[in-house]
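Continuing the series of single-chain predictions for the mutant panel. This is the parent chain; the variants come on the following pages.
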Amino acid sequence: QVQLVESGGGLVQPGESLRLSCAASGIIFSVYAMGWYRQAPGKQRELVATVTSGGNRNYADSVKGRFTISRDNTKNTLYLQMNNLRPEDTAVYYCNAYYSMTYRPYDYWGQGTQVTVSS
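Parent structure:
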């Protein structure tokens, strides 16, 4: 019933930019804390960026200054603007809601969108 659909990934060269989108349905989007996660093959899932229902944002050190998370509650959509991409950013990117006090994600995982940064 709850659906999270990621889009916007692709193949880019180092230094280029991408904007990811996450369309949410089946939830009252505006009340949920939301985050972007990424997972490369053979690696643990990493929390990249978060935004609470109140608009507070946080970022992993690896992406600070390069990525910006935002949300449009009127469109039930979460965004991740990724600038100055690096090869180490290569991963499948997922969005999800999480319990804001514990950072535990809901079991609402979608299919993700592939980001590949390569020359």
